[in-house]
Amino acid sequence: MLDSKINSLRNAFAGLVIAWKEESNFRLEIACGFFILLAASFLEVSHTDLLIIILLIGFVLSAEALNTALEEFCDMVQRNPDPHIAKIKDLAAAAVLIASFTALIVGAAIFIPYIPLS
Question: Which end of the chain is more exposed for a tag (fewer CB within 10 A), N or C?
């Protein structure tokens, strides 16, 4: 049983490596997350706000990983242009966009009170 859990963990880390190597959007989102965490540290946001920020970063990265997996699956199933596959890919990309906009709105609500006005 422990072996299967270790293999599952290895597979998950392999997925992270694939996302990092093959998806420029994933790398960009990691970089943005890193800078957001630096800004949170610099502005000394509360622990609760920091946890929300970490949750949002994970939310966006998870959406991106799922989008990538779905696109990969669609490409495997149907190599030729297909309107249904295009629709599926567009919907998956929309999920990442929704996650990103949500993170942006909540992030702005968190950060704005910490930014000195003068």
Answer: C
pTM: 0.90
pLDDT over 80 (residue 72): yes
List of residues 6+ apart from 82 with CB closer than 8 A: none
- H/E element, 71: helix 47-77
The pair of three-digit structure tokens given for residue 111, joined into one six-digit string: 């950060």
Q: Which of 22, 23, 44, 64 is catalytic?
A: 64
pLDDT of residue 81: 87
> Contact, 31 vs 80, CB < 8 A?
no
CA-based nearest residue to 25, from 36, 13, 14, 33: 33
Q: pLDDT tens across 14-27, in order?
A: 999 999 999 999 99
How many domains in the chain? 1
Percent of the chain scored above 70 by pLDDT? 100
Specify the CATH number for the domain of residue 8.
Answer: 1.10.287.3610
For residues 65 and 27, the answer to whether their CB atoms sit within 8 Å is no
Clarify whether 64 is annotated catalytic: yes
